[in-house]
Amino acid sequence: MRPDTLQIALEETARRFSKLWHVLNHGTDGPHSPETRRMLVDRVRDALDRGQARLADTDGQFIANSFALDALVHQGPTTEVHRARHRDLGTFHAIKMIRPDCAGDAGARDLLLREAAIGLTVRHGNVASTQTVIRLEDGRPALVMEWLEHRLSTALHTRQLSAADVIAVITAILSGLDAIHAVGFVHCDLSPVNLLMAGKNLSQIKIADFGIALGTGHRHGELDLSFAGQPNFASPEQKAGQPLDGRSDLYSAGLLLSLLLRHCSDPSDKIEALKAISIQLSRKMPADRPQHAKAALMMLANLGKSDPIGAY
Predict the structure, then answer these.
(1) C-alpha–C-alpha distance, residues 149 and 147, integer Å
(2) Domains of the chain, with CATH numbers?
């Protein structure tokens, strides 16, 4: 654009903005109240957001008049997760929604709303926070969750762990499980992919994704799921489709602890005790495992004592 043309465009924009600002502040009967002015400004902002999406050929990128979809970070069989930025606050969030091609899948919708209800029930520093549920323009529900950039699965490929790192991670996992179990749910999907953190501090690991969580004493068959979970981390009773309780998650935690130890080169004298705890957590029979996450946390607290296993 030539400089003189640009100047004309800027002057015209300034003139129109001045007129718009006058309309936003004054009606036919005098100045608007502050509440009316804020409402009108919000409506103009919404219109600008929609116009920006159309001009950028990204129609639909703004959802609920509040979130700009920034990147697709995960796609599953019926759902997808986007990183999103809040229009007014500038904060990042994870938004999980039904995939457009599965919009008519009533089962997927029910599972997502069920996941939202469970996620909103659990509040703990080692559990990823579900913040709210919104409805997209086409009626699909979507979960708004805290944005956690890093996965444990990635961290395990980029760093060696110390014994202190291993203890920090497994303590965070068991603490999160204790909170989940305390409100009557079994997570059922523990794996490095579903363990997230905002930074690089392993003690701040958070358990995410309640997509296949169950109420204690229930089985996945009740949700018309023949099998749900990560085969490499699911408990024997979960694979068999049996009713589950918190000990099923402890089995998965034991396998995770074993995985962490394989990434640990620390000669610490605590390693053997950690291996023993891993074995105890992942016993085939639920009755042979610790009875609950608190007991497993006590075993960790007793590391270095003569009989750490005896604490459960």
Answers:
(1) 6
(2) 63-146 (3.30.200.20), 150-304 (1.10.510.10)
